[in-house]
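Entry:
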Amino acid sequence: MGTMDIIQDQGPRVRQIFNDFFKTEEIGSFVNGEIVHGAGETLNLTDPSSGRVFATFNDADQSVIDLAMEASGTAQREWMKLTASARGRIMFEIGRQIRENAAAIAEIESRSAGRPIRDIRGEAIKVAEMFEYYAGWCDKLHGEVIPVPTSHLNYTRNEPIGVVVQITPWNAPLFTGGWQIAPAICAGNGVVIKPSELTPLSTLILGALCERAGAPRGLVNVISGQGTTAGQAAIKHSKTGLVVFVGSAHAGSLIAATAAKSVVPCILELGGKSANIVFNDADIDRAILGAQSAIFGGAGQSCVAGSRLLVHRSIHQKFVERYASATNKIPVGNPFEDTTHVGPINNLRQWNKIAEMVELGLGEGATLAAGGGRPQALEGTGGFYFAPTILDNVAPNATLSREEVFGPVVGVTPFDTEEEAITLANNNPYGLAGAVWTQNVAKAHRVASQVRAGTFWINGYKTISVMSPFGGFGKSGYGRSSGKDALMAYTQTKSIWVETAAEPPVAFGYVG
């Protein structure tokens, strides 16, 4: 792979794919079934593999937000006029449309977001599965009859909230876009989704495919704009009934505070500092492969990344040596090459943060076992590449043990006992995910029950499914964004009382 392969101009191909879906090369927001251009400042889309700007668009202004909210509200009412079965058929067709266009969607995400094409091909199918799964739920969201101790028939209805505002990050725009849209519309809501201003393209396509599949025009609107402008305007809008945010804990707290002023509920899927625990009785070969996948998949730009590797002291040195040797062999490079396992960091600001965190870790006493900066072979590309990095002997209270890096950097900490491993795993304000590697079944379940995390794996890592609830404890957020739990979060329960007595009791006894 030569330098010219990496720094090729992605612009023409990206514009061609965009034009195939929208009949225009000019990027904007997808509102009420068409591309609408904002009047805000000019924003750049940058190719992470070369550092070059390949497209520009204007930030969505208040008028775009107003149009999107109005369109979503109108379409939501049309959507709910359909039978539940009809909505399910449309959702299944959305899944089919995604499958049919999976190659183009994967290509535009790889070229524009810098994610390895080999990963996104599979993700596109997973996004189709999200819509197919929730298609089956559309006609099963029913209430219940409650045997109240009176003469009343009391039953409940799970009703849609109305218009939902969703804000998703740059690390996995395609996946997080489908992950949010599917349960929201299954529950009967309209959607105004704002992907990161750095990576809006694949989410725009998802919005278009929803309409192509038969959803009412304006049911899913995609805003291309910044969080501080377009995102805040959507959160504050009078038609917003629920805010869903995927991103950092800091940004999530600000968003929740803004929503709270209007008494609008939130679902927050925030960061993590997940512990990956390896005992001395583990299958070491599998644990090494799992530890690589846990932190280096997606260049470590994952909220569930296993960025804290806790290894039993009796195997610590040998494990790190083998882990480092394997890590140095991971192919890093052009994300559009099938042989690439780790692509570039999404943006320069994040690359700089990762580099600063590595320097800070070394300054606090850790030792460098692998990586540590830009791969030498990729120096001349201009891309935001960072080598898979292992920092050994990271102290439990070091910055690297407590703060999210969001990059391909893992800190290794040895432990002596099961109790110590659990204490170390819980010595963190986050609680999104974690894992344990051991062949002792009882120990595996003991650890799983005691580590504070919303998702926990035994002898594996990073397996998730739309069928299973996903969310965090503590600083990792609240609410669940998949499975049946997500549907309940996207509805509000109404209790209805029907008097059935032949002669109902009279409270006052006066008839006018």
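The longest strand covers residues 152-160.
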